[in-house]
Amino acid sequence: MYLGIDLGTSGVKAVLVDAAQRLVGQSTAPLEVSRPHPLWSEQDPEDWWAATGRAVAGLRAAYPAAMAAVRGIGLSGQMHGATLLDNGDRVLRPAILWNDGRSGAECAELERRAPNLRAIAGNRAMPGFTAPKLLWVAAHEPERFKEVAKVLLPKDWLRLRITGDHASDLSDSAGTLWLDVGRRAWSDELLAATGLGEAHMPKLYEGCQPTGALRAEVAADWGVPAGTVVAAGAGDNAAGAVGVGVVAPGSAFLSLGTSGVLFVSGDRFAPNPERGVHAFCHALPGRWHQMSVMLSAASCLSFAARLTGAADEAALLREAEAYGGDSNAPVFLPYLSGERTPHNDPHAKGVVFGLTHDTDRGALARAVLEGVAFAFADGLDALEEAGGRVERFLVIGGGARSALWGRILASALARPLDYPAGGEVGPAFGAARLARLAVTGEDPETVCRPLEIRHTVEPDPALAAALAPRRRLFRRLYGDLTAAFREADGA
């Protein structure tokens, strides 16, 4: 039995997977995000620990015998978050998250200090990444910066709590802007550009390697054997890829979670930073991947449900389905937290354009689904500039449950979408697979096989034709409003 734990932005998910790779059970615990100032996005690491405890307790209550048979634990988590510790491993401030946009000026400063950054890290400096956050702390909280002894990513802070080890995997660490991604090692040059050194960093491992063992007191609390192996794990997207079997070069997935991701696996380091495409290490040795990332995807639907007073997201989707479509319906820009690929614009804002007296909740819901799909299409254009054509995508994430959204996405992207059985489990399942590899040393290709495809959604030519002029308006609106976004933020 293997336990996978995924520390997401909106919650912690824990899953139990047996030796036949069957999902035995799952449990979740919610998290909240603090936004005390414009562009800020933070969480208290102690809230991660409490939510992890609740999620694991849910499994222990429902499956005590299975928990007692756990042989390995894998971790996945939200990427890029800066968790700052002093020399006693005490948290110095709330963690600055991946969707925090405060460090725009620091990105420019980092690129000035490290002119080789894009070649080494494979990415341009963006506010979401970890390194610019440290420059912001140094500039705005200098006394706190002086106390920093270790910087850990969110899931790696969880690892510290359960094993006592300062360790990370390469896929997650590739999102810091401190890693030499092609060489799969920390870069002294990039660390020095933020006033840090390798001593501030955790030890690096491949995602399928063991990093330590569960502390006895944690094992007793969780109801698992003492000394259980803890794998290095992965950033959430690489873990999701491992979970659905996107490990072979050229295979790809679309993740419709809080954020939106198009992910393509490869066997070489192939960056395209100018278009905001991310080039990172994969969670398995000798593999890399490219991603286009949008900061708000399924979270846009949650936002719309809350804004319009819908009972929940499912009810709002039903209204969108009933509405159908209309060429004069509103157009939605989904930039509620700014945007990464392809705009690299922390100042971008969410916009609903084209409201009339006839606009109802169903029309707004439909606009949200289309706007997210158009942003994915922009990301696909950027992604394919860096490599060859991507022929099809597996779909994972909570938004994958919407059939309507699938039809809109397939038609906007002009690509078939394959829906795997169990794909909604996502990164937590991949973390459990990495735990198994850390324990058994099996061939990763054998364990990380693709999931069975439940159904495929093909592009609808009529729908694609109807969406095309709306996507042109979508792109024009962003271009027309770019300067206004910056002005609104005083930039």
TrEMBL record:
<feature type="binding site">
    <location>
        <begin position="79"/>
        <end position="80"/>
    </location>
    <ligand>
        <name>substrate</name>
    </ligand>
</feature>
<dbReference type="Pfam" id="PF00370">
    <property type="entry name" value="FGGY_N"/>
</dbReference>
<feature type="site" description="Important for activity">
    <location>
        <position position="6"/>
    </location>
</feature>
<dbReference type="GO" id="GO:0004856">
    <property type="term" value="F:D-xylulokinase activity"/>
</dbReference>
<feature type="active site" description="Proton acceptor">
    <location>
        <position position="236"/>
    </location>
</feature>
<keyword id="KW-0119">Carbohydrate metabolism</keyword>
<dbReference type="InterPro" id="IPR000577">
    <property type="entry name" value="Carb_kinase_FGGY"/>
</dbReference>
<dbReference type="InterPro" id="IPR050406">
    <property type="entry name" value="FGGY_Carb_Kinase"/>
</dbReference>
<protein>
    <recommendedName>
        <fullName>Xylulose kinase</fullName>
        <ecNumber>2.7.1.17</ecNumber>
    </recommendedName>
</protein>
<dbReference type="InterPro" id="IPR018484">
    <property type="entry name" value="FGGY_N"/>
</dbReference>
<dbReference type="InterPro" id="IPR043129">
    <property type="entry name" value="ATPase_NBD"/>
</dbReference>
<dbReference type="Pfam" id="PF02782">
    <property type="entry name" value="FGGY_C"/>
</dbReference>
<keyword id="KW-0808">Transferase</keyword>
<keyword id="KW-0067">ATP-binding</keyword>
<comment type="similarity">
    <text>Belongs to the FGGY kinase family.</text>
</comment>
<dbReference type="InterPro" id="IPR006000">
    <property type="entry name" value="Xylulokinase"/>
</dbReference>
<comment type="function">
    <text>Catalyzes the phosphorylation of D-xylulose to D-xylulose 5-phosphate.</text>
</comment>
<keyword id="KW-0547">Nucleotide-binding</keyword>
<feature type="domain" description="Carbohydrate kinase FGGY N-terminal">
    <location>
        <begin position="1"/>
        <end position="243"/>
    </location>
</feature>
<keyword id="KW-0418">Kinase</keyword>
<dbReference type="InterPro" id="IPR018485">
    <property type="entry name" value="FGGY_C"/>
</dbReference>
<feature type="domain" description="Carbohydrate kinase FGGY C-terminal">
    <location>
        <begin position="253"/>
        <end position="438"/>
    </location>
</feature>
<keyword id="KW-0859">Xylose metabolism</keyword>
